[in-house]
Amino acid sequence: MSETKIVPEYPQDRTQGNLELAVVVPTFNEIDNIVRLIDAVQAALEGHAFETIVVDDDSPDGTADQVRKIAERNLRVRCIQRIGRRGLSSAFVEGALATAAPVVAAIDGDMQHDEKMLPIMLKTLLSRDLEVVVGSRYLEAGGTGDWTESRILLSQIATTLARRVTGVTLSDPMSGFFMIRTDVLRVLVPRLSAVGFKILLDIFVSAPTPLRFRELPYRFRARSLGKSKMDAKVLLEFAELLIDKFAGHIVPAKFVIFSLVGSLGVVVHLAVLALLFEGFGVSFPTGQIVATLTAMTSNFALNNVLTYHDRRLSGWAWIRGWFSFALASSVGAVANVGIATYLYSSHQTTWLASAVAGVLVGVVWNYAVTSVFTWKRS
């Protein structure tokens, strides 16, 4: 845990007149940056009636405690500490719903967004009758700072995919730096997926009618302190968001991913069985047992990394999770066979329809049980 930062003195008045703006800062392990960020926002919005709401996902480094120390002396600062919940998007939503300000801004806690843009964004939003103002890295005069070529390429691919799949016309739909009218956001909240990091894309895709917006260029700064949160998990959450926006009204996004992993498991099963039975002459029953265990393990491992990346198991929890998954899958397999056999033997359906019905029952059972017991929320 980092050492406690020196808390500067702040004025006691929260606002100057009616509250104009709430700046929501989702954080996780940002104790090295949070004091600097609050100071920077304070300086940028001097003369404005605003509040800063830090929504912390129970950071083990003591970020929430640090914010509370600041809030003791600065009535413009508030802290929401979330227990058992993670994710930038849902953190922003909770912070935005906690304010009475007519406008709310999203800014990262790592000092990579340019807080000096906040008053410019607010003026633009109010003077042009807009609903959203977005800070864009991809307009002329904007920039991505010291990003590596690989990160630039990944960002460009994700941006292009998001625009083509969703139809959103933003130059930077993956931006985490934006401002929105609070009444507009409140109407959209029941429609939001609130998955992962890409809340702006979620907002635009969820809006029943096109939002009135403008983008302003800004230069993304390099992180100087703390550890970056950008990893493969962000890409997984992006994919889950897209699936949820297009299939979530029918089935949960996690069920879609779970089913895709299960389909891959069938391929693994057949490949292992063919290798053992045809390639090495192992007896069919033995090959079937080994193939089943292999496919079951691969399904568990992939679901742990892909479907339930936000509840990923490790160490002894991984071992316990495997046994739980194997038990649930075994019961699901019995249900699969039982339902299919009953439907076919009763002559109510064809063999193909019976088999499909059995598979569906097995998949739904496995998903429902493992989501509760294997990857239960902490």
Low-confidence segments, given as residue ranges, are: none
The CATH homologous superfamily of the largest domain is called Spore Coat Polysaccharide Biosynthesis Protein SpsA, Chain A
Distance between the termini: 22 Å
| CATH topology-level fold name of the largest domain | Spore Coat Polysaccharide Biosynthesis Protein SpsA, Chain A
How many independent structural domains?
Answer: 2
Give the amount of beta strand, in percent.
5-15%
**Given the helix and strand composition, which structural class is it?**
alpha/beta
Broad shape: elongated
Q: Counting H and I runs of at least 4 residues, what is the number of helices?
A: 12
Spatially, the strands of the biggest sheet line up as 3-2-1-4-6-5-7
- What's the overall average pLDDT, rounded? 84
**CATH architecture title of the largest domain:** Alpha-Beta Complex
Largest sheet: 7 strands, mixed
Q: How many DSSP-defined strands?
A: 7
Radius of gyration in whole Å, from Cα? 25 Å
- Provide the helix percentage: 40-55%
The CATH C-level name of the largest domain is Alpha Beta
Instruction: Give me the strand/helix succession.
Output: EHEHEHEHEHEHHEHHHHH
Model description:
- The protein has 378 residues and is α/β, with parallel strands linked by helices.
- Helix content is 52%, strand content 10%.
- The chain contains twelve helices and seven strands.
- Strands 3-2-1-4-6-5-7 form a seven-stranded mixed beta sheet, sandwiched between helices.
